[in-house]
Amino acid sequence: MSPQLFNARFGRLIGAGLLACSLAAVTAGCSKSEAPAEKPSAEQIPESATEYKPENLEKEAPMADKAAPESGVDYHSFANSNDYVVKHVDFDLTADFDNKVLSGQAILDIKALNSKNKPLILDTRELDIKAVRAGIGSDLKPVKFSLGKQDPHLGTPLKITLPKGANKVAIEYQTSPGASGVQWLEPQQTAGKKHPFLFTQAQAIHARSFIPLQDSPKVRVTYKATIRTPKDLRAVMSANNDPDAEMDGVFEFEMPQAIPSYLIAIGIGNLEFKPMGERTGVYAEPELLEAAAKEFEDTESMLEATEQNFGPYRWDRYDLLILPPSFPFGGMENPRLSFITPTVIAGDKSLVALIAHELAHSWSGNLITNASWRDLWLNEGFTTYLTNRIMQFVYGDDRYKMEMALGYDDLKADLDDREDKDEIMAIDLRGRDPDEVFSNIPYEKGSLFLYELEQKVGRENFDKFLLEYFNHFAFQSITTEDFVKYLDQTLLKQYPEQLDRARIQQWIFEPGIPEGAPHPQSDAFTKLDPIREQWLNGEIKASDIDTKGWTFHQWKYFLDGMPEKLSEDQLKALDEAFDLTQSKNNEIAFSWLMIAVRNDYQPANARLEDFLVSIGRNKFLRPLYRNMVEHGKTDEAKRIFEKAKPGYHPLTVKVNSKIIYGDDSE
Ligand code: BES
Ligand code: ZN
Fold first, then answer.
1. Could you give all domains of the chain from N- to C-terminal order, each with its CATH number?
2. CB of 339 closer than 6 A to ligand 1?
3. Quick one: average pLDDT of 527-543?
4. I need a labelling partner for 338 at 20 to 30 A (CA). Which of 283, 325, 357, 399 fits?
5. d(CA 363, CA 306)
């Protein structure tokens, strides 16, 4: 039997199901977009548009090149970062929970890269710009500014006329209540149910919905911030958090290392702190604090193991912020403070690979950053590879093999669903919203590619390469081509017998998995295949299966490998023997609910509804809603979605309403 696999992490969003409308278009309305083949065009900039030259035009790319995206060009930013580069941002924002707006000022330190007196163009999205001043040092005077046409994916360019020699720009502004990168939560949506909560999620292109800046991963800034909150709440950021900060409604932060804008992050809520190790701790609502600190107590060991093998941790502290369950992701690697869904607190550390993953981004992603979203695999592929390695360091070989095998199965399932062009690691994202194109490909194909390199040159040599790579490009944003060039100068030179350039090109620029690629497997899984088979054939009863000692991974493998159709009797037998409908492990519950939906297993309906209403993680929601729609349960999906909607993050509303209300094809 070939296991029936589904794409757990991303549903099947690309290919047949690419969404054409960005989250920012929630209020603006959205339409199928015609892919602009170039960087955001000058027509979108009002007035003297001639002053604005997109970088690719400046380089006078020949027409033939238009067929392929240009390396290093960020097609998802309006900013003229070849003319000016923002070096530092100083912002002061007040969180107004009644009106759901952040308001205040951002002061940008800019450096002119050429002597021509061009306007400065920044990224914004639904920001209300009240005033702009600019000048030298502290001598800032009001200047002319204008907003261009809103693009459904990219937001709105802000063009600022600068006085000669200006090195500072101060922008007074306010966010929109529907800002795509901010979620304002009612007390009801939190663990404590008494206080509101706010969190931002800037990756990929949502920082511009709460700060006007050059919202491109190739630009790195240091920042300072003052965040003003209601007096009973604590603010934390991707910066130097102080657990002893006075609770007086004013919190000061500093991020002294230069980071890309998508790593700027704010969380506000009834938060307390508990240390886990010398450099690690958790911020969470008091109701969750103990459980979180226990679940993630190995974070310090993960940090130490990663440092020992891949070079120093360069961000001082590593803390976790546990968010309410509406957080649309599993985790987000905001530097010094990863944002984490509470749905991975399973009680048995079975889902802590998520922590290893976000921690690993402190090297791959935060230290070396993808220069554009086309290069995302440099962030996520390296991180997925490192995650597996960290899991092996801390939990041993069996766990390592299981994590690898599940990742491989995810990749296979994803490849079955996608068009060739979307199976390419260095994906062409021109005219597309990066939010909607993410898949397992940059994660698992990227990781498998690195695993093959490791296998070919030997682990010790590969580790040495990684260590040097992290040093070589530390605090830089790099392109796929920068990486390949570096490979040319290092591994390809050192191991000409083992590696060849053509194969590297194939991995990065061609669809599918190259023939002869490694296929990670786990004995702990393969031994389950005959058991599943025997049960399916009626040779053994569910209650005869000895599941004592099964890990979460084994349960997932066992369930995900079930055939498309099971009989009512089979479903009942499984549920009675293992109480799957009531599983406390959200991953197991999810796998079971996928089976229940496609087989119309009514006893799971109440759990399904509760799951969809209480969890906002799109990794679960998208496949479940899609499954409902595909199995004739659209009305039920609509009813549950409408009930849950007030609590969902803007991104969750956007991507799932497409699935439920149609228009889910490009
Ligand atoms: N950086 C990503 C989340 C992300 C990617 C947000 C792209 C927006 C755009 C984060 O590190 C991540 O990969 N999260 C995964 C973790 C999983 C692979 C262990 C998630 O949330 O599921
Ligand atoms: Zn990641």
1. 84-273 (2.60.40.1730), 523-661 (1.25.40.320)
2. no
3. 98
4. 399
5. 9
